[in-house]
Specification:
The complex is a heterodimer of chains A (166) and B (358). Chain A has 166 residues and is an alpha+beta fold. Chain A has a single domain, classed as Nuclear Transport Factor 2, Chain: A (Roll), CATH 3.10.450.50. Chain A has four helices and eight strands; from the N terminus they run H-E-E-H-E-E-H-E-E-E-E-H. A six-stranded mixed β-sheet of chain A has the order 4-3-8-7-6-5, with helices on both faces. The longest helix of chain A has 20 residues. Chain A is globular. The relative contact order of chain A is 0.14. With 358 residues, chain B is α/β, with parallel strands linked by helices. Chain B has a domain of 243 residues: Collagenase (Catalytic Domain), CATH 3.40.390. Chain B is 18% helix and 23% strand. In chain B, strands 1, 2, 4, 5, 6, 7, 8, 9 and 10 form a nine-stranded mixed β-sheet that branches. A two-stranded antiparallel sheet of chain B has the order 3-13. In chain B, helix 5 packs parallel to helix 7. Chain B starts with 9 loop residues before the first helix and ends with a strand. The chains are: A alpha+beta (166), B alpha/beta (358). At the A-B interface, helix 1, strand 1, strand 2, helix 2 and strand 5 of A face helix 1, helix 2, helix 3, helix 6 and strand 9 of B.
């Protein structure tokens, strides 16, 4: 077999063997169609944040076992600082909430927990969303401080679109 | 742009099956077959430019949960939009043909590979005859088959956890023509989790028009965030050596590597979720979760993640006998158990719908 014929033969074989790869049109699932096994820390603090919110709404005798005595809330809007009692009043007005995208970083005796909190409150079901950063003291299992940033309406709209896809 | 044409991979086309290995253990013959050494795709053509799967987006459904006091904890069947023609009322899998894929150059390293490939082969190959399979019996009658493992020693990178790249890997290694309509392709990588908030995930896509249900797994060696703390494995990070390989009938400490025990636990999570809530792609476009999940979006594995059953006939809480070996596996959610037949508690202890089969 001459050199040119060998070349053509190898080229043909290569094309035939490559045909399956060339025809592979890959289409990803839409965003939202990927279901994760979260880490132990994420599972634990997701449960803890839910327990906190539920306990605040349910508590009537003023005993909030998951809140540290020195608990306070900081935000970038209005007065920077919010007392525990002020914050409790706001939480109790919320009719429903959703926690999204929770992440956890463990630093010495603290767990830094960040997440998106979407809430519905009032008779008109006003929706709002915030980015939360909580500092939990691990040795006491109590929330010591919360940092809050309001999210824009466009972000809220984005979250709603995600809901409809699942 | 939702479609991507894979480049001409001459090296892939000429890839050679390296070897096939069979072993006899526990009176059953199983094989680690069709081990492939595939060349990496050229990076210049390997970028998939459709959806940008950010951590924020693809974790949104999993993290969305509300108060247990307000909403029902039960899982309910979903059918997707009613305008889409369906062949069945509920989208679940009744036949699953599993082909594990081990992806990354580290799989040639005997220290890294350790007992993982052998162990997961035993796990998948014997799952069907184990009690654990009955954890989904109220949703589907599952016929699970282990097909064969594939090894792709092409290099992974920090982007290998991206669902698009994992899907491309499955399509590359298996080949479009060989994709099984009932296939499930768990992809085990040598990529460390780093700061990601998840250990694994399951997802889906299409390749050449064929539906592909797949899952991705980080390497979980010495990763306490994803460690079930199996009594049969050395603690994460421990210098204590495991017993050499898997030893049938030896229900004592350290018969598995910590990495294998961790992978087995999250493998149970992803497989059972894929069975009860596979992604559904209608001909009209889009994609949906078409099976069972609760009102917060949590699937059967999510609702019992990182919880383990009470002590039973095995040595330790949460252990399940599969293929003659003890595995520490999380439970799966059962509506029936929550409604009265009895399960063990979820994280937080408020609900009792977790089961590990019986």
């Amino acid at each position: 077999m001459c050199k040119k014929s060998i070349h053509n033969y190898l080229f043909t074989i290569t094309l035939l063997l490559s045909a399956p790869a060339m025809s592979q049109d890959i289409v990803l699932a839409p965003p939202g169609l990927s279901a994760q096994t979260v880490t132990r820390d994420v599972a634990e603090y997701t449960s803890r944040e839910q327990d906190l919110m539920a306990s605040v709404k349910a508590e009537e005798n003023g005993q909030y076992t998951l809140l540290a005595d020195e608990f306070e809330v900081w935000s970038g809007q209005g007065s920077d600082w919010q007392s525990k009692s002020e914050w409790l009043q706001i939480i109790k007005q919320q009719r429903n909430f959703t926690i999204r995208n929770l992440s956890v970083r463990l630093l010495d005796d603290f767990a830094v927990v960040s997440f998106l909190l979407e809430t519905v409150q009032g008779r008109h079901n006003k929706r709002s969303a915030q980015f939360i950063v909580d500092l939990w003291r691990k040795s006491t299992n109590k929330l010591t401080v919360r940092y809050v940033s309001d999210l824009t309406p466009s972000t809220l709209s984005f979250l709603s679109r995600q809901d409809r896809k699942i | 742009m939702r479609k991507f044409l894979l480049p001409l991979l001459i090296a892939q086309a000429l890839a050679v099956n390296a070897f096939a290995e069979g072993r006899e253990q526990n009176n059953e013959v199983y094989s680690i077959s069709e081990v492939e050494d595939l060349a990496p795709a050229p990076t210049s053509n390997a970028t998939i430019t459709s959806y940008q799967w950010t951590k924020d987006v693809h974790s949104s459904r999993k993290a969305s949960k509300g108060t247990a006091s307000i909403i029902s904890p039960l899982m309910v069947p979903h059918t997707g939009p009613t305008t889409i023609p369906r062949t069945s009322a509920i989208n679940v899998m009744s036949t699953v043909n599993t082909t594990p894929i081990f992806w990354g150059s580290s799989w040639t390293n005997s220290t890294f590979a350790s007992d993982k490939i052998v162990g997961l082969t035993v796990w998948y190959n014997n799952l069907h005859s184990s009690p654990y399979i009955s954890a989904v019996s109220e949703y589907t009658t599952l016929n699970h088959l282990f097909i064969m493992s594939k090894i792709d020693t092409s290099a992974t990178n920090v982007n290998s956890s991206n669902p698009g790249n994992v899907l491309a890997e499955v399509c590359k290694v298996v080949g479009t023509a060989n994709l099984n309509a009932n296939g499930y392709y768990p992809v085990y990588t040598d990529v460390a989790r780093g700061t990601a908030n998840y250990c694994a995930y399951h997802s889906a896509g299409t390749c050449g028009g064929k539906l592909v249900q797949f899952a991705f797994f980080f390497s979980l060696d010495n990763d306490p965030g994803c460690d079930p703390v199996s009594p049969y494995a050395p603690p994460a990070g421990s210098a204590v050596a495991q017993k050499p390989g898997l030893v049938a009938g030896v229900s004592s400490a350290y018969q598995q590597s910590q990495g294998l025990a961790a992978l087995a636990n999250v493998s149970a999570h992803e497989l059972m979720e894929t069975v009860t809530d596979p992604a559904y792609f209608p001909p009209t476009g889009g994609g949906y979760w078409g099976g069972w999940y609760d009102l917060t979006g949590a699937e059967n594995g999510d609702k019992c993640a990182w919880t383990f059953g009470p002590s039973n006939t095995r040595l330790s809480a949460g252990t399940v006998l599969i293929g003659g070996f003890d595995w520490k596996l999380q439970g799966e959610w059962s509506n029936k158990a929550q409604n009265g037949t009895g399960g063990y508690p979820t994280q937080g202890g408020l609900l009792k719908g977790c089961v590990t089969g019986s």
